[in-house]
Amino acid sequence: MSRWLSLVPLFLLLALAAYFAIGLSTDSRTIKSVLIDKPLPAFALPKFGHEGQTFGSDDLKGRVSLLNIFASWCITCRVEHPMLVKLTAEKRVAIYGLAWKDKPDELKAWLEELGNPYLAIADDAKGRTAIDLGVTGAPETYVIDKHGRIRFKQVGAIDEIVWRDALEPIVKRLEAEQ
Amino acid sequence: MIRLALILLLCFTVAAHAVEPDEVLPDAAQESRARALTAELRCVVCQNESVDASNAPLAKDIRVLVRERIQAGDSDQEVRDYIVARYGEFVLLRPPLSANTILLWFGPVVLLAGGLALAYFYVRRLNRTPRVVTPLSAAEEDAVKRIIEGERS
Questions:
Q1: Residue A48 belongs to domain with CATH number
Q2: Is B42 helix (H, G, I), strand (E, B) or coil?
Q3: Contacts of B90 in chain A (CB under 8 A)
Q4: Is A82 domain-assigned?
Q5: DSSP B103-127
Q6: Which of A153, B42, B111, B131 is least surrounded, with the fewest CB atoms within 10 Å of its CB?
Q7: d(CA A121, CA A102)
Q8: For chain A, how many structural domains are there in total?
């Protein structure tokens, strides 16, 4: 009995070590979205390039899509952009954009230079919709299901590996859903 | 003297905050509520700074948003709930007491109490163990004697 008792500190230490091992190996910088499996927050923003029209959460229902938060001032978005252009060119998924606190002329120039992979772009000039979505930086990409619910959030740029390992399996699974 | 004054001055500096003049609310009471609230909100860009202290553009947006909610008549708790609904409890620098955080709040106390209890029982058992002193055998006495004498010579 007393021999077992003397081992208690060792077990406590091992438990603590396991706890820290888990804690240290997970990326605490990426904040998990609280909106997963919840409907996209309702928004209706000016549709970029289509004066007088709006683009909003209702337009994201009916098909599986990506909602990409980007901006012309965002360096990583520039890195990510060719991958989005490629995904659209190969018709692999519907991509919508949300331009976060961007200026219309700078956004226009950016799209002209790099190409426009988006079916439509919501112009969130004030950044309020981004806050409603829980955006922590750009680029971030939400996977939206057919019912307009957020099912996955990708923080950081999409590249070939992120697409293959994270996004494509989810998009495929959601497309098979009713 | 001047050096001493400088040192004293440095001792009494306060943490910088990032609130810009155009953000400040005209109502002083509302402004101080906003300051207190944003000081306890984590900036999601530079995560170990508060929204009140951070220069990140997103922190500024949230500062302005918090002030708008206050002006619209939200209570402190309503403002907090509004931000938590979007970013989760992670943004609260002072985590609320809930099933998830119970270990965080009471873990250290439990560990300390456990350690004290272990130490208490260990020491008590040591004191209780009768100290039986077995006298040395004749052969051992001889050996000790030889060693001592060997050292003396």
A1: 3.40.30.10
A2: strand
A3: 31-32
A4: yes
A5: HHHHHHHHHHHHHHHHHHHHHHHHH
A6: B131
A7: 12
A8: 1
The structural domains of chain B, ordered by start, are: 2-91 (1.10.8.640), 102-152 (no CATH)
The verdict on a CB contact (< 8 Å) between A33 and B44 is no
ipTM of the complex: 0.81
Chain B residues touching A9 at Cβ < 8 A: 118
pLDDT, block means (10 residues), chain A with 178 residues: 80 92 80 89 95 94 96 95 96 96 96 96 95 93 95 94 95 92
Q: How far apart are CA B105 and CA B101, in angstroms?
A: 6
A-chain CB neighbours of B54 within 8 Å are none
Residue A23 in domain: no
Q: Measured between alpha carbons, how far is B151 from B146 in angstroms, rounded to an integer?
A: 9
- Domain of A47 in residue numbering reads as 29-176
Residues B2 and B14: their CA atoms lie apart, in Å, by 21
Q: Name B128's Cβ contacts closer than 8 Å, sequence gap at least 6.
A: none
Alpha carbon of B136: minimum distance to chain A alpha carbons (Å): 29
Size of chain A, expressed as the number of residues it contains: 178
